[in-house]
Amino acid sequence: MLKSKNRSFIRGIAAIAAVAVGCFIAGNSYASTGGLQINKAVTQDFNKDQLNRTYHYYALMDDGGPYAIVGLERGYRITGPGWTPIKLESPKFRTITSELEKSPVEGSSTYGAYVQDSQGKDIGVWFSSMMAGEMVNTRAKTVSVRLHPNLLLN
User: Are residues 16 and 65 in the same domain?
Assistant: First the structure.
């Protein structure tokens, strides 16, 4: 009898330890999910060319046109295929912004949003008609974006 109670006690301690280790590992991970905080002021900033001049900007494009523009604070960079650095002062930047405004993904509308890390800190801006999710690696200072083609902002 005593032996079976000891086994249950040891199993309980092992389960608690496993949960604690899992929480510790998850809490100390450098890659975390961030988010896009939709904001009308960001949309207006893109429409009026009143963007943060210290951000580094990237465009996601293919032969058919642009899908998104993201601006990230210094030190951060975007990872993944299709993202091209673009200068804020270039005529191409204004052309891409105009194309995004005039030709959103069918059934959607173009919007601006703050790019946030998992702590809710603004680390950049987003402009697109597609919904997306992001992963931020605070140690490597990288942001990767997943577009959700079936989730359009109406």
Answer: no
Tokens of 51: 């963007």
**Residue with the two structure tokens 């058919």:** 64
Q: What is the reported pLDDT for 21?
A: 34
Co-location of 134 and 78 in the same domain: yes
Please compute the mean of the pLDDT values over residues 105-123 and round it to a whole number: 88
3-state secondary structure the chain: CHHHHHHHHHHHHHHHHHHHHHHHHHHCCCEEECEEEECHHHHHHHHCCCCCCCCEEEEEEECCEEEEEEEECCCCEEECCCEEEECCCCHHHHHHHHHHHHCCCCCCCCEEEEEECCCCCEEEEEEECEEEEEEEECCCCEEEEEEEEEEECC
Answering whether pTM is above 0.70, one says yes
Please give the mean pLDDT across all residues of the chain: 78
Domain count, the chain: 2
Same structural domain, 27 and 40: no
Domain limits at 97?
Answer: 34-152
- % of the chain exceeding 70 in pLDDT: 75
**Same-domain check for residues 124 and 65:** yes
